[in-house]
Design a protein that fits this description.
Blueprint: H1 10-20, H2 38-44, H3 49-65, H4 88-101, H5 116-119, E1 123-127, H6 153-159, E2 163-167, H7 180-187, E3 192-195, H8 219-227
Length: 228
């Protein structure tokens, strides 16, 4: 609220937040945060002790339900170790989640889905700055992934036995430098072309918003060249 000029100090923010029902803060730091002003607000009479109790109660109720205060032996998660990370069960579940989250906005002439049994007879071109760049595939607040577990569109299709040609066109999402000749050389010989475009955290993220929804740099030109 302070950053948006709704309030003018941490103390005023603490008072407004508690009175509005807020009981959790994504703080600026442990020593200098908004809710550290609560004792001062309480002493000034801007909030009451009963109000604080009402705000804190659901927090501790939730922590108790999660077992945070139980002995470690009672917590089933205590027995987990690093062997569960990227286990086959978890990877299969991630694959299922990815498949079920796809959104197909327009499917002209039933082009999709591509059938695995047909891929070996077709020449695929995978192009664009997101076609084979693992670093740009994850959004804001995503964990830092292990590169060996990242499947770019190019890598995934190659694993299916497809005859794949690749051209980034531009090496990063901002697409300030675009190689049209590189793109046309790959696209011209293909039966199917997959164009992988977007923004990524290099272009937009929290506190770095854009004023429009246009594709960055030369990405639109890349798309038009691929279609033509």
């Amino acid at each position: 609220m302070l950053g948006h000029h709704y309030t003018h100090s941490f103390l005023e923010t603490a008072v407004a937040s508690v009175n509005a029902g807020c009981n959790l803060e994504l703080s600026y730091g442990m020593r200098n945060n908004v809710f550290m002003r609560i004792p001062q607000a309480l002493a000034m009479g801007n909030i009451t002790l009963q109000m604080l109790r009402d705000r804190v109660r659901p927090l501790f109720y939730t922590r108790m339900r999660l077992g945070e205060f139980d002995p470690p032996a009672m917590n089933p998660y205590s027995s987990l170790d690093l062997s569960v990370v990227q286990s086959p069960e978890h990877r299969n579940l991630s694959l299922e989640a990815a498949v079920k989250s796809f959104v197909l906005l327009k499917n002209v002439r039933g082009t999709l889905p591509l059938r695995a049994q047909d891929l070996s007879r077709q020449h695929l071109a995978v192009v664009g700055p997101f076609a084979d760049n693992p670093r740009v595939l994850f959004g804001d607040y995503a964990p830092v992934p292990e590169p060996q577990y990242i499947y770019t569109p190019r890598r995934g299709l190659e694993m299916l036995g497809a005859n794949v040609s690749f051209a980034a066109g531009c090496s990063e999402p901002r697409c300030k430098q675009y190689s049209r000749a590189e793109l046309l050389r790959v696209v011209g010989a293909a039966d199917v072309v997959l164009v992988c475009l977007g923004t990524g955290v290099d272009v937009e993220t929290e506190a770095k918003d854009r004023s429009d929804l246009s594709l960055p740099g030369h990405q639109l030109e890349l798309l038009q060249d691929a279609v033509q």
